[in-house]
Amino acid sequence: MAIREQLIEYRDGDTVLEGVFCYDDSRPGPLPAVLISHAWNGRDEFAARKAHRLAWHGYAAFALDMFGKGKRGSTVEECQALIGPFMGDRAKLATRIQAAVSTVKALPQVDARRVAAIGFCFGGLCVLDLARCGADVRGVASFHGLLPPSGLPAARITSKVLILHGNDDPMVPTEAVVAIGKELSAAGADWQLHNYGGTMHAFTNPEANNPAFGTLYNSAADRRSWKSLLNFLEEVLR
To answer: What percent of the chain has pLDDT over 70?
Structure first.
């Protein structure tokens, strides 16, 4: 096994983006692909590590870029400024993440018929919006993602949906959890939601350690949610 990593530049209009692409070159291709959508600080090492981990499991994995090449946030204010334009314009968000999907489907190592997307925090919102806009991906999985409706015209959701949620996440009120279930059912989606008790926002990130802000790593929820993801990917991509 030899995991290959390469940086891939791509565009959304005039914006230059840069993703991390990982795959095992000992596996016969083309491979099913999984896109990884980052949290509000930008495409970071956390997302790249998830790409490596998924490549080890046999997927062509792409840690996408929502903000632009080299754009990162290191403070709450900087991160809020990065996500602000997308939270305020969900059509712009959908166009940006679909640029990543188109890029991945065109890669020679990828089976364009078998593509899924996962996301963390803000990235969870991004992949849910990918499903909401009727994108041609087989499944999306949101880890401790934000759940507000997009406000865009409703489309039939053909992607299977997995939501992995911390029950004590202060950034996602209970009403939002109930509402997205109703929304997905109305859109005809095949969906499931795993709600982890005693679990806050950012539960998959070992560096999350700010309960006052609502973010705290939870090793049990991290382990359980990853196993759920692998089962989900096995179902939708094999």
So the answer is: 100
How far is 52 from 206, CA to CA, in rounded Å?
17
Confidence of residue 153 (pLDDT cuts 50, 70, 90): confident
CA–CA dist 188, 61 (Å, integer): 28
Are the beta carbons of 184 and 200 closer than 8 angstroms?
no
Q: Are the C-beta atoms of residues 64 and 97 closer than 8 Å to each other?
A: yes
pTM of the model: 0.96
| Strands 209-210 and 215-216, sheet pairing | antiparallel
Q: Which two tokens stand for residue 207?
A: 């560096």
For helices 90-105 and 122-132, the axis angle rounded to 10 degrees is 80
Cis-peptide, bond into residue 30, ω within 30° of zero: yes
The answer to whether the Cα torsion of 34, 36, 37, 42 is positive or negative is negative
First-to-last alpha carbon distance for the chain, in angstroms, is 20
Backbone angles phi, psi at 49, to 5 degrees: -65, -40
pLDDT of residue 238: 85
Domain count, the chain: 1
Structural domain boundaries, residue 104: 3-237
CATH of the domain at 213: 3.40.50.1820
> What tokens were used for 218?
């939870």
Query: Looking at the chain, how many residues does it have?
Result: 238
pLDDT at 29: 85
